[in-house]
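Course assignment 3, question 2. Fill in each field.
Student: A.L.
Task: Predict the tertiary structure for the chain below.
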Amino acid sequence: QNVARQVGVGAGLPYSVPAYTVGMVCGSGMKSVIEAGRAILAGDADIVVCGGTENMSAAP
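Answer field:
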């Protein structure tokens, strides 16, 4: 499941708002902040909501 989509829908955003998940073992939150900044600087977005979740306790 797309965690970003689930969070957006749970926050009340419509399905028409794009969402994608950054899938990295570590550093997903930092990578999402970097990607959000790049999207704004490039003019691809005016507003970006980003964040990260980690669940390393379940990793083998």
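Instructor remarks: Residues 3-55 form one domain. The mean pLDDT is 87.
Grade: pending
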